[in-house]
Design a protein that fits this description.
With 262 residues, the chain is of the alpha/beta class. It is built from eight helices and nine strands. α2 packs parallel to α4.
Length: 262
């Protein structure tokens, strides 16, 4: 078995005269959390769309789990696109079961998997509601669960934290950590480097269509240790995400009801 869950060799994608991805080589091992980083327009989404065979490269080769992407292989992949897509008139539970069915998962198995996740994501009061009644953050959680319901081997997420509040960012991070603990591969794009620094084993940094860094996070930080000024030493302080959660817990305020969130 190949050591690479995903491998790109010499991949190029052009749109007219514009080169969106320029001779990209990537090798993503099995069982890692991998961050595809870079500013907006660097080529992250185009790269992910080529991996998923939504758009084809003009040059180079891409292999996923040791073979070119195919319709059958997509059943082993969980994909969350940057452009979220839900059926606005469909009830949440029906939508999740629909996502399961198109991946070949029967209703009983889907409900067994979904039930604890629905509770963890605080979606229980909403499962009988139509999608259009949910906030943007709630809709994103629904689509995220739809990405997991078929128990994929590889999870590919394009800007998964975009639009989520701090509590839901932590919920999604916890899901991804559990996914990795199961020995599966997590790949996500982001332009927020702090997220990748905390979560990823390996990263690749794209800039103006080219890869400028690639490798284990620890190795990259060590390589730049003498080339990038270190901040002055400070007393360790709690992270804002955890401060936010603690303040909510200590406030004594109840979470908003489903009616209040409308």
């Amino acid at each position: 078995m190949s050591t690479a869950a995903i491998q790109l060799q010499g991949v190029v994608k052009r749109f007219g005269k514009f080169t969106a991805v320029d001779r990209l080589d990537l090798e993503i091992p099995h069982g890692v959390t991998f961050g595809l980083l870079g500013p907006n327009g660097a080529g992250k989404t185009t790269t992910i769309r080529m991996i998923m065979n939504i758009t084809k490269p003009d040059e180079g080769t891409i292999q996923v789990l040791g073979e070119p992407m195919s319709e059958k292989l997509q059943e082993r992949i969980g994909y969350l696109p940057e452009e979220r897509g839900l059926y606005r008139k469909m009830k949440v539970i029906d939508q999740l079961l629909f996502f399961a069915s198109i991946k070949g998962v029967d209703k009983e198995t889907a409900m067994r998997r979904l039930s604890p996740w629905i509770d963890s994501m605080d979606l229980r009061p909403w499962i009988g509601k139509k999608t259009e009644e949910l906030s943007k953050g709630m809709q994103q959680k629904v689509q995220f669960l739809g990405t997991l319901v078929h128990d994929p081997e590889v999870l590919i997420l394009d800007e998964p934290f975009s639009g989520l509040d701090p509590i839901n960012v932590i919920l999604v991070k916890d899901f991804l950590k559990e996914f990795k603990r199961q020995g599966k591969t997590v790949i996500f794009s982001t332009h927020v480097l702090e997220q990748a620094e905390r979560m990823c084993d390996r990263i690749a940094l794209l800039y103006r269509s080219k890869k400028i860094l690639d490798g284990p996070v620890k190795d990259i930080k060590h390589a730049y240790r003498d080339r990038v000024p270190l901040p002055p030493p400070v007393e360790p302080e709690p992270e804002l995400e955890n401060i936010f959660i603690k303040a909510v817990q200590e406030s004594g305020l109840k979470p908003p009801s489903a009616e209040e969130l409308k």
